[in-house]
Structure formats: structure tokens, C-alpha cells
Amino acid sequence: MDLATRLKEIKDALKAGLKHQGPWHDRLPEFSIVDRVEIKIVPRFKTSGLSGNEWRQNISVVGYFKGEVVFTERCGDMDYALASVYSFYKHTSIPKVVLQKEKECCDQPSCMNKATNRYLMKKVHSEGNHFEANAMKKSHGQGYYRQFCDIHAERGDACLNDTDSNYLPIEGGPGNSTNLDSSPSGGPIVMDL
Ligand SMILES: [Zn+2]
């Protein structure tokens, strides 16, 4: 099935209120199971008739994904606290709460807004990270989609993968963008010698 036919099929299914029509949700290359980490020292005054009273502290670590807690740890020192974050990030399989939030939220990392724009992808990266010519072929005719809130609806034109020209709107589109935040690229540093 070609992309245009698949796009029409998905739009028709949405109009009819049908679910489970695909396509597959494709994560951005920058996807991470944690988008905010709080590490803080928590002091407590320990009292004991046997060993005496003293101030002690441990380290509280809390990791979040789109506002939901995905990771907590209590550590004896800062070395272990920092290592625990890295271990969670590198070795934990994707938590259920992350999968649930992904279904409804904008794909922009750390954005907690509901997704209101959905785009079918034209091309995707292959296993070797080369840019694939045909997303439909790789997905066996299902297609891949991404979704964004109105602030992040416009994706720009700087890369091949996550760019307006690589998307066909299923719902909404880059024209829905309400983004007011932009900053110029750093560019080369010019030194006056
Ligand atoms: Zn967003």
C-alpha cells in the first residue's frame, strides 16, 4: 500500500471512530525514559539511647517522565545517587507509566501537553541508522506516526527525520503551531584578536 492510500485509510477510520487501525508510534531519536531528575540531601536527627544522638543524611533521588514519577532511590552518598540514575537510564526496560504517557502526550522530550497533531512519516531510519527511503515498506504497510501538541506542531527543516517535510498530517499540522519560543543558533565564535 502506498503512503497516500494509507493516509486516506487512517483518516477514514478516524472519521468512523474506529480504533486499532495503526500505524505504529515511532519515537524521536532523542527519546529518554527520564526527562527530569531531582537529587537532594535529606538530613535527619537520629536519636538513640544506646549509640547517642546525631545528625545523619541520605540522598533522595526522584526521576520523572512527563511529570510522572518513574524512579525513586534512597542512597547513602552522592556517588551512589549519581550512579543509580545512570544505571536506571541505561539498564531499565521502559516503565509502564512511560508507555501510558507516550500514548497521549506530545512526543517532544519533556513536554507534558496532550498531543493534538498527528503525522504519518514518509521516511524512517533503518537498523544501520541510514535514512530509509520507504517507511511504509519497513512497517509492512502499517506506517509510522508521531504526535505533537500545538506548541510543538511545527518541526522545522533542519534534519531528515523529524522535519515538516518528512510528515503528512493525519490530524492538525504545522500550521497549528502556537510556538512563541525561538532562539538563534550559536554559530561560529568570532574572536577579535
Ligand atoms: Zn509539546
Explain how this protein is built.
The chain starts with a helix and ends in a 22-residue tail after the last strand. The longest helix is centred in the middle third of the chain and has 14 residues. It has two domains: 99 residues, no CATH class; 60 residues, no CATH class. The model has no long low-confidence stretch (mean pLDDT 92). The chain has 193 residues and is an alpha+beta fold. The strands form two sheets. It has a four-stranded mixed sheet with strand order 1-6-5-7, covered by helices on one side. Zinc ion binds next to loops.
Give structural attributes.
193 residues; alpha+beta; 2 domains; four-stranded mixed beta sheet; three-stranded antiparallel beta sheet; 21% helix; 25% strand; elongated; binds zinc ion
Offer a concise description of the structure.
This protein is of the alpha+beta class.
